[in-house]
Predict the 3D structure of the following.
Amino acid sequence: MNTTQKIAIIGAGPMALYTVKGLLNGEARLNITIFDAADQVGCGMPYRAGMNADYMYCNAFSREIPSITRPLVSWLHDQDDAFLARWDLDRTDIDARDFYPRVLLGDYLTSEFSDLCDAGRHAGHDIRVLPAHEVVDVVPTGGSVTLDVATPDGKSVFAFDKVLLATGHVWPSSPQLGTADLVSPWPYTNITDQPAGDIGVLGSSLSAIDVVVALGQEHGAFTEENDKVSWFPETGQEALAITMVSHKGIIPEPDFYYPFPYERLIHLNPEAVMAEVAKGPQALLERVFGLLLAELNEVAPDYMAALGPQAQSIDGFSDAYFLHRETIGGLRALRETLQAAVKSKEMKETQHHRYALLRGHENFELILEHLNEDDWTLFNEKLMPVFGDCYAAIPHISVRRVLALYDAGVLRIAPTGTESSIKNNAAGGVTVTTVDGDIDVDALIDARGQASAGLPDLPFASLVDALADPDSNLMEPFRLDLTDAADGSVYCLAMPQILKRHPFSQGLPNCDDLGRIVAKDILGTL
C-alpha cells in the first residue's frame, strides 16, 4: 500500500472537516494539508462569527448533527459555565432535540476540527492546517496537481498527488437580479446597517427569516414571556416596515416531532428506490413518484384526500400541494401551524405527511444521477419545490419572532406570482411587481440561498482549462474528469457545483455523507 501520497484540501469548513474524519477512518498513514483563505478554520461561512449574528439558528436539531470526535451535546456539557452563560444556557437546558445558534455550532466545529487533527497526528498522520492561505489556482500537470497559494508571506507553490475542492458557499458581494441591485445578507452587518424604513426581503425560507429577525433585533427588541414573544421598536425606529417577497408568498412550516433515529418509510425506502434504478432510466421518476404516492396514501390518507385526485400525478401533485399550503399558509395562519407543531412535539406524534415528504427527499436523492434530461427537468419543476418547502422547517423560536413582528404590524409577505419583475427605481430603491401590484422598497435583501453553478464557474482557471468536458454533470465519487495531458486527481465538493445535480446537499449531515464518499474513493486508490 502506497502511503506517501500527499493530499490537499482547499477549504477548512464543515465539508473539509467531515472528509478528514472519513480519511482518518482508514488504515493508511496520510499526509494532509488543509488550506483556507480565512483566519478561522473549522466552522465555514454559515457558522462563522462576524458573518452570522448570535440569534441566527440552525434548523437541524442537535442529534441530527453528525458527531466528529463527540456529539454536540457532549461537547456542550464539557464547556465551562462562562461559555454556557454567554448563550443563556443552563446545563439542564442541553438537549439532543434542541436547536442552537449557528455561531455556537461554529464554536463546536472549530473545536472539533482542532481535536480531530490532533487525534490524527497522535495516530501517526502528518496533518498541516494553513489558515490565511488563499489558493488562487489549481494546476493539474501529469500525475500531480500544483497549487498556487497566496500566503501571508507572499506567493507559494505546493505540489500534491490528490486535491479536494471543499471551498463551501459562494455569495456575490453585490448581487443583482436582472438589472436590479440587491443587498447581500452576508455578512449580517449588511442587514443591520439598513436604516429603518421600507425593507424588502427576497425569499421566505430560513435565510429570509434570519434577515427578518436581524432587522427586528437591530431596530427594536424582542421580549419573551414563556412561549409568548413580543416586539417593540426602539425610539426613532418606528418607520421599520418589512415585506417578504417570494414566488408563492408562503413560509416553511415550524419544526415538528419525528422519531430519531429515523424510522424507515414503508414504500419509499432505499431498497425499493434502488430496485427501480436497476430497471433503467426510462420512466424512473414516474416509478419512484409512485412509491411516494403509495407512502402518502397509506400513512396520510386524510391529507391526500384534502389535496384531491389531481395529486395522484406528478403534474398535479405540486399544484395541489402548494394550493393547500397557500390556503392554510401565510403569516396569519403561521400561529395555528405553530400550535400544531408544538402539540406534535409535546405529544411525540408525527405529522405523517410531513415526515414522509421530509424523508422522501433523501430517497429521491438516490435517483438524481440516473434521471434522463426530461425527467431531470420535470423533477426540478414539479417535485423539487415541494421537497424544498418541506425540509426547510423553522425552529420555533424563529417562528415566534416572526409572529411578533407580524403582530406589531411591521411584517407582511407578498407573492410575486409568475409574472413578477424586479427593477431599480428613480428613488434609489427597488420596485417589485407582485400579484397585488407594485411594491417600492428602499432596499431589497437577497435571501434566496446558495445558487448552483457549473464546473466552468470554478475560480481556478487552469483547472477549468484542464476539464475534459466542462459541461458534464458532477457525479459520485466527485472526481473531476481531466484531459489526458492533465491527468491529475482532483475531487470537487464545492457547494455551488455540487448543488447543480445534487440539490439536497446543503447541511452538516450532507457534508458528512459527501465527505465519506470522497474519503472512501481516495483511500481506495492508496
About this structure: Residues 102-122 form the longest helix (21 residues).
